[in-house]
Amino acid sequence: MSALIDDMLELSRIQRAPLRRSQVDLSELARRILQELQRAEPNRQVQIEVARGLSVHADAHLMQVALEKLLGNAWKFTSKKPTATIHVGRELVAPHSFFIADDGAGFDMAYAGRLFSPFQRLHKASEFDGTGIGLAIAHRVLARHGGRIRAQAEPGKGARFSFEVGAEDE
């Protein structure tokens, strides 16, 4: 219940917090988040690939929140695999377009429309813990930056979340 309340408060704060844009090194941010996840579960065998030079003009705190949610999901949904892979990179379609891909549990795309709404879970709580708010938080962060997020997945074969951050306000 405490985690649910914390996530609800975070979701609310994201809508109200003023954007303070600066140059954000997404590569470094992703590496730090993944190192923390690895430290919390040192026995997990996860191959991590983070592309160099991923950078965007955005609010650093909010981008950290979004990446924590997206990478946390990739970490969580690969937890049942003896050896997993998580990849962070740049999409080639747009300059401010990135992706986080994993080879974990995946999901049925028939339910993808529910992914970014609060409390919508595509896996049973007994399989994977969570509050069902993380992707809604990531979605709102990206929307605040004039961006968007999309998902592609297949059950048992992993998921790929592609996201864009709106053009810089320079």
Write a concise synopsis of the structure shown.
The protein is built from 4 helices and 7 strands, in the order αβαββαββαββ. By secondary structure, it is of the alpha+beta class. The strands form 2 sheets. A 5-stranded mixed beta sheet has the order 2-4-5-7-6, covered by helices on one side. It has a two-stranded antiparallel sheet with strand order 1-3.
> What amount of the residues lies in strands?
25-35%
Regions with little confidence, pLDDT below 50 for 5+ residues: none
For the biggest sheet, the summary is:
5 strands, mixed
Question: Number of domains in the coordinates?
Answer: 1
Features:
single chain, 170 residues, alpha+beta, Heat Shock Protein 90, two-stranded antiparallel sheet, 7 strands, 35% helix
SSE layout:
Blueprint: H1 2-16, E1 21-25, H2 26-40, E2 45-50, E3 55-59, H3 60-77, E4 83-90, E5 97-102, H4 134-144, E6 148-154, E7 158-164
Helix pairs in contact: 1-4, 2-3, 3-4
Write a structural description.
By secondary structure, this protein is of the alpha+beta class. Helix 1 runs parallel beside helix 4 (134-144), helix 2 crosses helix 3 and helix 3 runs antiparallel to helix 4 (134-144). It has one domain (2-164): Heat Shock Protein 90, CATH 3.30.565. Strand 4 and strand 5 form a beta hairpin. 35% of the residues lie in helices and 26% in strands. The protein contains 4 helices and 7 strands. The longest helix is centred in the middle third of the chain and has 18 residues, at 60-77.
